[in-house]
Every structure is written in structure tokens, then in C-alpha cells.
Amino acid sequence: MTGGETSGALVAEVVSERGAFRLEAAVRVDRGEVLAVLGPNGSGKSTLLATIAGLIAPSRGEVRLGERELARSGSDGRRTVATAVDRRRIGLLGQESLLFRHLSVLENVAFGPRSQGLRAGPARTEARHWLERVGAAEFAARRPAELSGGQQQRVAIARTLAARPELLLLDEPFAALDVPTAAAMRRLLGELCAETATPTVLVTHDPLDAIVLARRAAVLHDGRIAQIGTVAEVLGHPATPFVAALAGVNLALGVATARGEVQLEGTDGARLVLSSGSTAADAAARPAVGRAASAVFSPGAVHVAPVHEGTQEASAAPVANRWFGTVSLLQPAPGGVRLTTVEHPELAIDLPGAAAVALDLQPGARFAFSIAAEEVTVRVRD
């Protein structure tokens, strides 16, 4: 039986401080669930993992794992519970395998069971089992220096799981691997997490990690959780520009109109109105007028057309999902070209290479842009 089979949910409701940085977060990860944690550098991801692991004591709050209370600090900052790191039964896996260079692969994996009191023979048997599970049994007699990066990471996964953790903390575990190896490791770790039913917190900058491994995602920003929900919800309509960039979508921030649309103003003062269609038809779903709202759409969903001579651009009442813009920057994009405009530099528009050539895209050129309502989603912002 693995540690995950007897573990319960992780509940962390903490305030933690590192110098001038302050983290305030509350997360729950059920048995068998993977929670992806996204956020820019300095948002608090490492502080959250360190607090759960016991490397940082919370200034206030508690960390529980099933029926076990791992840490608790009162409002006065006094620590009333502080379980030692080596007694928390938490497995931590990062970018670096951190294998013991002087030990064989087998002894590396057997280290966890040995440190928990298992005798040498049974510990090696357990280690061989996990090496077989990760497809690394053939490396048992080798030293870590004789293995590739992907092979070392397989061994690191085996060593982590051989210690029978009741919680897994994964900190960018695939970031240092090449694409094929990272894909294989995702598949392997996904299978093992499902098999052991161990609650898992996955910190990542790669949306593919969240899509493949996690059911829910939380977004940290400036030490607070800015958004939490299913991976589809978080990546489908991000709350922050960082996650929008990760998901490869445009996030347009503005205010709600009486028709449930989102209105924003360009650098030239012209208004841009974005509508999802459904918000205008469903009065009950409309956000309050003037309230902060956002619209999300794919850069590749925008249609670009030349502005013909005599076209009337200015209008007192802008037409939803249509606007004019001046090309400011052209960049390569997969399969074509990405452009941004002077009026809305935060919005990207992607075109296939052939379309870009036909339009004769040049910085300073004026174009008309449009997008179908079904390609846009609109949300009220807190």
C-alpha cells in the first residue's frame, strides 16, 4: 500500500512572510486530486510550497493533511503546532533530481524506506518495485552521473514515491527536460498520481502541465489567490494577463455596458466594444453597468481586412466586435505572423503567412479588425 492510499485531503489556510513579501492563501486538495498553481515569478508559489512542506512556519493559520495537523500559528504569531519536516510524509520533486551522487540508483531509491526504519533487504525490494514502475530498473547499479536528465528524473520520481508520501509537491518538475522526455514524464507521473491517489500540488509555468495532470488550477498574484477553478475555467477565461499569456489568448480589460458587453478605450480615445452575443441576449446574466469586466478571445480568431479609401472610421456608437487599428509591431508566430496595434498594444492578432503576404502588412498601415461573437467570452471581474 502506498502512502497516498491512506492520506487525506490537504488543507492549507496560511499567512506566511519572507522578508517584505507576504503570502495569504487558502487551498484544499482532495485525495487523488492534482491542483496546478500558476503565477509569475515572485507571486508566492515557492512560499506556498515551502509553507506546506514545513520549510517556512506560517505567521498565522494552519496546514492539515487528513487528520494530521502539520502546522498552526495563532493570530499573535505563536506556533502551537509545528511538525518536523522529516515527519510530514511529504514528497517534494523539483526541476533538479538532487540524487545522491555517491550512491547507486538502487540505493538512492531505497534511501526513503531505509530512513523510515525498513531494513536494507526489504528497502531494496521496495526500491526495485518503484524502479520497475518508472521504467528505470535497468539503471539500478549505475550512479546518477551515468544517466541522462530524463533518466535521472525517472529515478527521482521513484525515490519520491518509494518514501510513501501522503502528499506530493511538484515544483516545475519538467522544466529542465526536452519536449519528448517532458511528455513521457507527464504521462508517467499522471499514471502514478492516479494509481496512488496522493493529493498533489503542482507548481508550473507550462499550461500543458496543468491540462494533462490537473483538474483544478489556482492563480497566485502578489501573494494572493487571484483565481481558482477548473483548469478549463482558469485557462479558458484567465483573470490575469500572466495566465492569458500562458493560455495564448487575449485578455481585454474594461467596463460592462448596458447590453452586457465589455467596453475599453484605445490609446487614441476610440471605444472598442466586445460582445459574446449571449450576454446581450440574457438580461439576467448581464453585469452591472460600469462594473469591471473582461473579454477573452484567441488572437487567431480575429479577421483582418484593408481599410478602403473613403471608409468612415469614426463613429459615436461603435459596432460591437469591430474596430480599426494601426499596425505597430510585427512578430513571427507559429504558422504565420502576429501583429499588434498602436491603439490596443495589449491585444495580439495572428494571421497565416499567406494572409499576411496578401494584406502586405507593414508597420503604420491601417486595417479593419472584426471577430465573431461566438469567439468571445465575457466575465464580470471581482
Please give a structural write-up.
This protein has 382 residues and is of the alpha+beta class. The protein folds into two domains: 3-89 and 164-235, 3-Layer(aba) Sandwich (Rossmann fold); 249-380, OB fold (Dihydrolipoamide Acetyltransferase, E2P), CATH 2.40.50.100. Helices cover 25% and strands 32% of the residues. The protein is built from ten helices and 21 strands. It has helices at residues 45-53, 105-115, 120-133, 149-162, 179-196, 207-213, 231-236, 241-247, 278-281, 353-359; strands at 10-18, 21-29, 34-38, 60-65, 68-73, 79-82, 90-93, 167-171, 200-203, 216-221, 224-230, 250-256, 262-265, 271-274, 292-297, 303-306, 322-333, 336-341, 349-352, 366-370, 377-380. The strands form four sheets. The protein has a six-stranded mixed beta sheet, sandwiched between helices. Strands 2-1-4-5-6 form a five-stranded antiparallel beta sheet, covered by helices on one side. Helix 2 (105-115) packs across helix 3 and helix 2 runs parallel beside helix 4. Mean pLDDT is 90; it is low at 1-5 and 279-284. Keywords: ATP-binding, Nucleotide-binding, Transport. One of its GO terms (molecular function) is ATP binding.
What oligomeric arrangement do these chains adopt?
single chain
- CATH-defined fold name of the largest domain: Rossmann fold
The counted number of beta strands is: 21
The helix content is: 25-40%
Task: Average the pLDDT over all residues and give the rounded result.
Answer: 90
Total number of helical segments? 10
What is the annotated CATH architecture of the largest domain?
3-Layer(aba) Sandwich
Q: How many distinct domains?
A: 2
From the spread of the alpha carbons, the general shape counts as elongated
The fraction of residues in strands falls at 25-35%
- Strand-pairing-aware structural class: alpha+beta
List the strand order in the largest sheet.
7-8-9-3-10-11
Uncertain ranges: 1-5, 279-284
CATH superfamily of the largest domain: P-loop containing nucleotide triphosphate hydrolases
Distance between the termini: 44 Å
Largest sheet: 6 strands, mixed
Using only C-alpha atoms, the radius of gyration works out to 25 Å
